[in-house]
């Protein structure tokens, strides 16, 4: 996963806008924001894993023949 995906102009703008918002935060606000962002990333990853398990028939409720 070392390959970098090229971002659209809209995505690049969104990143620049986000950077501006973060620069205006206090140190404490930025720390709180990072913790919440990380929590969302972990939840998203767990959700993707559950969806993949279900779609691939690997969840505990399904039986492979």
Automatic annotation (TrEMBL):
This chain's protein is named NblA/ycf18 family protein
Gene3D superfamilies attached to this UniProt entry:
Phycobilisome degradation protein NblA (1.10.287.670)
| A Pfam family the protein falls into | NblA
Organism placement in taxonomy = Bacteria, Bacillati, Cyanobacteriota, Cyanophyceae, Nostocales
> Known SUPFAM superfamilies for this protein?
NblA-like
